[in-house]
Every structure is written in C-alpha cells, then in structure tokens.
Design brief:
binds adenosine-5'-diphosphate, about 350 residues, 6-stranded antiparallel β-sheet, D-amino Acid Aminotransferase, Chain A, domain 1, Rossmann fold, binds magnesium ion
C-alpha cells in the first residue's frame, strides 16, 4: 500500500510527533509499504522513507517559539490537499500529537476530502481533546473522573471566585491544567492557594479553557487499545513523582511496569475500564486512556489519547509487547481497521 505518514504539526508536541512518525514510517517500510513522510506545516517538503524529516532530539522541556510563524501561514490547506492528491495514498497515517492534528480538525479535513486514514474519527478526536466533555461522557456511563471546576476565557471569570470555588469544592492539593493540552504542558500541582494566579496564567497562555481537578493520590496506570483489542495495563512510575514533560521524554526518568503489578482483579478491572472508555468514545485504530488508582482501589480516568506516542519505546507498543505483539504487528493491526 502507499501510505502517507503525517508527522510534526504545529502543537507543542511537534518534536515528539516527529519521533513517533519516524518510528511508524520505519515500521511500515519494513512491512513492505511505499511510505511518504509529510509535515502538514510544510506539505511540499515531503520525503520518501529513506530520508528523515527530523533528525534532532525531543529535549527535556517543551520547545518555546516552536515555529516562529504566524498561525495563518502554518495552515497551508490547499498545499496539503494538493500534495495528498499528487501522492494519492491508499491510507494516511496521522501521527500528530496535540493541536489540530489530534483534535479532529485534520481528521475532519480528511473525511471531507474522502481520504482514508487510520485512527479515530474527527468526532472522537474532538471529544477526546476536550477533557471536560470527555469527563462528562465517561461519568454519564459510571466511570469515575476527578472532581473538577471548569472556566472558559470567553466567559470572563474572576480569579478570586476561582479561589473560593476550590475552597468550597475539593480544596487542595489540586491540579490546574489546560482543558485541551497534552504531554503535561502547562500543568501545575498546587499544594495550597499560593501560586494559583500564576498557574492560571500559564494555562491561559496556551489554551482558552481552564480545568482544575482535585488531586488523586495514588498510582498511575495507562491502558492501550489496538484495533478493539485491549492490552495489559501499564504502571507508570515517574522518579520525580510527577509525570511531566521531562519525565515523559527523558530516558531513565520514569519506570514503566508492564504488565502492571496489580492483583488479578485490579488488572481485569483496569483493562475493562480502558475498553469501556474506548467504546464510549467510539475510538478506532489505536488509543490509550490514563488512570489514577487510589490506595482504596478506586480507579479514576484522567483522559483518553486518540494519537498516543508511537515511538518503539512508547506505551502503546510496550503494552502490546507484553502480549507478544511486535511493533510492526501493532501497525498491521491498526492498518487492518481501515475498511
Ligand atoms: N487529577 C489528577 N490527580 C493526580 N494526578 C494528575 C491529575 N491530573 C493529571 N495528573 C498527572 O498529570 C499527568 C498528565 O495529566 P493528563 O490529564 O493525562 O494530561 P496530558 O494530556 O497532558 O497527558 C497525569 O499522567 C498525572 O500524572
Ligand atoms: Mg495523559
């Protein structure tokens, strides 16, 4: 098959996406496919599988001044469609993390242009990128999520009010996060009210919507699903105690236990929950949900990722490996979901 792997993009996760994209492109090439790599920000600069689109490293901190281009010049919509038309792939494989590449915007465009692609639909991507809407959907089906407060930049909220709301709802510690972010960028754990204003400012520089959650003490679990098949749960143990950008992308900063060291009942429950989240959101291809497991054995879902990391060392391939499924087999499974 002729496959265009989309990687890079304009979000703060651009560099991570290149890494995932290169790994996916290499795997697809090993499987005998004709692979092209394209960055939707510079569609005309696509390369064949023997060349790299990105040779740098991800770095320990999210990049600042990522592209130094105004938003409008990033959206080369006509060029993107033109180049896709020229290459006329059988399948597009978006490996874009965060921003319009994962939030359903790109998926909507591909759907509209009738270009087959792997992964979740635009609707699922839009929902999953909105943590608050996701929480509402999951809770409606009985899945626990941390209690939360939500504020939109558009409905001008008063910071004093936010402080009072936290006090009267769940108190501290709490987590201040962008409602539609990724890679823990812009997130602050607040042990008390000190620093709240700064934490809000950090979020609003990145995102229009602010989500504040009660802090769920406990262990960190993540459940991958590939082509409707749920993989063994992984436990994530960041050495710093906080699974932030640095812990996520620096080798050695986090321990991954796969399969997680859970009781058989907990393992079964967490995998069932992961599959339930997948089903509720009607996800497709591949995806991963993040959970917290409290000392009392309660599981709280934090979010669902429609395009999780896909380097060979990322969590989805790691979970598959625990079931003796290789990275290349993961890709075959994902491809098989496109009719
Ligand atoms: N309510 C919470 N309680 C405890 N830890 C949290 C909470 N929300 C987020 N975290 C921590 O921050 C990390 C990133 O949060 P998450 O909501 O998954 O956003 P992202 O999209 O950035 O991955 C989680 O993996 C977890 O370690
Ligand atoms: Mg997460």
């Amino acid at each position: 098959m002729r496959i265009v792997v989309l990687m890079g993009g304009e979000s703060t996760e651009r560099l991570v996406s290149f890494k995932s994209g290169e790994a996916v492109a290499n795997g697809l090439t090993r499987l005998g496919h004709e692979v092209y790599k394209m960055d939707p920000v510079f569609p005309k600069q696509w390369v064949t599988s023997d060349q790299k689109l990105f040779t740098g490293s991800v770095g320990e901190k999210p990049p600042e001044n990522l592209l130094e281009l105004p938003k409008a010049t990033l959206r080369r919509l006509e060029e993107l469609l033109e180049e896709l038309q020229i290459l006329s792939p059988d399948i597009v494989f978006p490996v874009l993390h965060g921003g319009p590449g994962e939030d359903g915007t790109l998926q909507g465009l591909l759907e509209w242009a009738n270009i087959p692609f792997v992964g979740s639909s635009s609707l699922t991507c839009h929902i999953a990128m909105d943590k608050m809407i996701t929480k509402k959907l999951l809770e409606a089906d009985g899945i626990k999520t941390p209690r939360w407060l939500f504020y939109s930049k558009h409905s001008k909220f008063d910071r004093q009010q936010v402080e009072e709301d936290i006090q009267t709802s769940f108190g501290y510690p709490c987590i201040v996060k962008p409602n539609s972010g990724g890679s823990t960028v812009g997130m602050t754990i607040l042990p008390n009210a000190k620093g709240l204003k700064e934490a809000i400012d950090i979020v609003l520089q990145l995102n229009d919507d602010l989500l504040i959650e009660e802090f769920i003490e406990g262990r960190e679990l993540t459940v991958a699903v590939i082509a409707d098949e749920v993989m063994p749960t992984i436990e994530v143990v960041p050495k710093s105690g906080f699974y932030d950008y640095t812990s996520k992308y620096t080798v050695g900063k986090t321990e991954y236990i796969c399969p997680a060291n859970l009781t058989p009942v907990e393992m079964k429950q967490s995998m069932e929950l992961g599959k339930k989240v997948w089903d509720i959101l009607q996800a497709r291809g591949f995806g991963r949900s993040d959970f917290r497991l409290t000392p009392k054995g309660e599981m709280y879902c934090l979010e669902f990722n429609t395009i999780p990391g896909m380097t060979e060392l990322s969590l989805v391939p790691k979970a598959a490996a625990a079931k003796n499924i290789t990275f290349d087999q993961v890709l075959e499974m994902i491809l098989s979901t496109v009719k």
